[in-house]
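Project standup — Tuesday

K.O.: blocked on the structure for the chain from last sprint. Re-posting the sequence here as requested.
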Amino acid sequence: MPPRATVRPRSYARSRSYDRSLAAAAALLLFAPLTATLIATTPAVTAASGASTPAGTPAASFAGITSGNWSGYASTGTTYHSVTASWTQPRISCTAVGAVSIWVGLDGQGTSTVEQTGTQAECTAVNATPHYFAWWENYPDPESPYRDSVRPGDTMTASVEYDHAQDAYTAKLTDETLGWTETKSFPRYSGATNGSAEVIAEAPNRNGSRQPLANFGSVTFTHAAIDGRTLAAASAATVTMARNGVTEAVAGPLSTGGDSFTDTWKHS
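H.V.: unblocked you, prediction finished:
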């Protein structure tokens, strides 16, 4: 996604205050354009990550995409107007410093902006208490946290929609377990093309540097849809997180219904 210049006003050293501008520059180096045979995407001009930095261009084709910081499913090749999914917030342990962001969004895969919302879990020190929170972002603006609590085991439902008439987006996040819902509307930046839609687990940036991926075990996304169609119907491709030859997270196959999958941690 667009460089998630996350500025998380929190005691955790603003672990979410990921400097998107620096992330964007780094992304250009981390995600060099690769050839895509079946998925037509535009090389990322700016990196997006906040819980996101844009993942970059497809490394392969329809069969799959390789990213240095994303794992999940993404659709590219046309314009998109909505994406939604549900998941159970995974628990992480602070045996090492790291973070994981879980979200849905538009743009970011081969584009220079990202419109997204989701949750993050992070460990800023070994043996620290994990911190969980929710956020939304309209990159290149900084990430904005919600004040609501998030706990491991909570059922989350997220969506991002584009309204052509208003030329604006609406990000909505609901904690079904705690009973809260947050809705944010924001205008479309001129660079936003709605060129991709994603359901992702990510190793986010902090202060311009990609963080180690926290061991989140696995997270299962359900009821995932792009423009009202299942991921299968939307021809979404798998996104595998791999860096320096090491696979860090893998998205499993889609369910029979085409709208569910499990993303599994492999390595920090």
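K.O.: great, moving the ticket to review. The CA atoms of residues 110 and 191 lie 12 Å apart. Residues 1-50, 56-62 have pLDDT under 50 and may be disordered.
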